[in-house]
């Protein structure tokens, strides 16, 4: 791994279907992460629209959308890779659960969820995944929620040289212990740091467990949220040693559902 790496997970809330407002609040969170020197910032699954299966087809996100321009510009200016989620139409009119990756060179690439959950199949189609990210000297493999429930997904990432496995998710309380346990196991077994960015609060009619977390490649917890409060998790690896911190996000950086249109 590189001499120094700073990664961040946003435990954020989303206004249902409001890409504009969510992109703006993503930008405010990203600005905080950039001030802290983050080189990678990951948001939850479908963060640009909320985990709103009923609204997904009506609110597809285009990688070249003007609404995403502030995020693209921030990535460029801060030299930080930002990963945000949204529904994306493929050339056949099928919807993919997509991670939009804003790169420090101003480009945008995509990773699509490979293992669409049974509960999502009436809306979404499984996608081909995407390339790992190179950040400093580290290789970061992305996963979206249920991808990480398939041990072969993490094993494949590790076999292709990933040092970091970064997961954007929407995980409820009843599924959290099992899924977090899997992630911690992957960290230890594959010697990869593992990042989980989960939602704050309710989305899509379900309550998120929150408890976003970052584990070291030994499987040690580096930083974690205790509940579903809005927060930014930071983890710094310097000379092989991880340190972490949790920054509460003020209401000003978060969207409020009450003011949504």
Q: Which descriptors would you attach to this protein?
A:
21% helix; Nitrilase/N-carbamoyl-D-aminoacid amidohydrolase; 6-stranded mixed beta sheet; 261 residues; disordered C terminus; alpha/beta
Structure description:
The protein has a single domain (4-255), classed as Carbon-nitrogen hydrolase (Nitrilase/N-carbamoyl-D-aminoacid amidohydrolase, 4-Layer Sandwich). The radius of gyration is 16 Å and the shape is globular. With 261 residues, the chain is of the alpha/beta class. The relative contact order is 0.18. Helix 4 links the parallel strand 8 and strand 9 (193-197). Helices cover 21% and strands 31% of the residues.
C-alpha termini separation: 45 Å
How large a portion of the residues is in β-strands, by DSSP E?
A: 25-35%
Low-pLDDT residue spans: 254-261
Residues in helix, %: 10-25%
Overall average pLDDT = 94
Write a brief structural summary.
By secondary structure, the chain is an alpha/beta fold.
Helix and strand arrangement:
Elements: E1 4-11, H1 19-35, E2 40-42, H2 69-78, E3 81-89, E4 95-102, E5 108-112, E6 133-135, E7 138-144, H3 151-159, E8 164-168, H4 173-190, E9 193-197, E10 202-203, E11 206-207, E12 213-215, E13 221-224, E14 231-238, E15 241-248
Parallel strand pairs: 1-2, 2-3, 7-8, 8-9
Antiparallel strand pairs: 1-14, 3-4, 4-5, 6-7, 9-12, 10-11, 12-13, 14-15
Helix pairs in contact: 1-2
